[in-house]
Amino acid sequence: MNLLGTFTLVFVALATPGPNNLFMTRAAAASGMRATVPAAIGVALGGLAMLLLSHVGLATVLLGAPELRQAILVAGSAVLIYGGLRIVASAHRRQHAPELHDGSAPAGVAALFLFQFVNPKAWTLSLTIAAAMPASIHSGADAVAVSAIYACFLLVSMACNLGWAAFGQVASRWLGTAARRTHFDRAMGLLLAGSAGLFLLQP
User: Fold this and answer.
1) Confidence (pLDDT) at 158
2) Nearest to 181 by CA among 87, 91, 83
3) pLDDT per residue over 155-172, tens digit each?
4) CA-to-CA distance for 52 and 45, rounded, in angstroms?
5) pLDDT value at position 105?
6) How many degrees, rounded to 5, is the angle at CA 142 between CA 138 and CA 147?
7) What percent of the chain has pLDDT over 70?
8) 178-200 vs 19-31: helix axis angle to the nearest 10?
9) pTM of this prediction?
10) SS3 letters for the chain?
11) What is the average per-residue pLDDT within 52-78?
12) Torsions phi, psi of 125, nearest 5?
């Protein structure tokens, strides 16, 4: 197994914009870095659980049942698109009634843990990494390599989530007016819905 290649895949996939990163950015901009830490933990643990399930055989099931894989993709994308459009609608309502607060706050560990299971990007990453890992552990070297992959995934996921949250924290300094906050939330909502829509365009 090419550990360097796997580590690179994990970093690039988790660091590039996606539903998790967009959520972290908006949540930190709205509520601050500290309030976003539970969400980052939930994302990391959810992704780790998906990787474990993929490694122990779920990948084989999904790859052998394209209809099931497509159903997960469509359902997950629909949930993300709906969430993105809700953010846009909330920003629109707040623009016309500034005294209203959308009541949104960063979700906790459990909510973001479960969110991973409807996130098409998370499934794609988990299945890809699992395919590069030994199907079973036959030696101490295999055990070390697999453990290193799991540890890398968890640490890189936390680092990337908190990195995007830090970006949101910095952005919050610019969002000092209601108009800027509205534009920011609209952009985040549209990006979230758009990133989910791109999954549906994949062959």
Assistant:
1) 93
2) 91
3) 999 999 999 899 888 887
4) 10
5) 47
6) 130
7) 66
8) 170
9) 0.69
10) CCHHHHHHHHHHHHHCCCHHHHHHHHHHHHHCHHHHHHHHHHHHHHHHHHHHHHHHHHHHHHHHCHHHHHHHHHHHHHHHHHHHHHHHHHHHHHHHCCCCCCCCCCCCHHHHHHHHHHCHHHHHHHHHHHHHCCCCCCCHHHHHHHHHHHHHHHHHHHHHHHHHHHHHHHHHCCCCCHHHHHHHHHHHHHHHHHHHHHHHCCC
11) 71
12) -65, -45
Token output for 88:
């846009």
User: pLDDT confidence of 97, banded at 50, 70, 90?
Assistant: very low
Please name the residue that has the structure tokens 């936390």.
158
pLDDT tens, position by position, 36-61 = 899 899 999 999 998 888 887 765 66
CA-based radius of gyration for the chain:
18
* pLDDT(173) > 70: yes
Query: Is 63 a residue whose pLDDT tops 70?
Result: no
The answer to whether 123 and 18 have CB atoms below 8 angstroms apart is no
| Residue with tokens 């539970």, as numbered in its chain | 38
d(CA 122, CA 128): 10
Residue reference for tokens 């908190």:
162
What is the rounded CA–CA span in Å between residue 77 and residue 59?
19
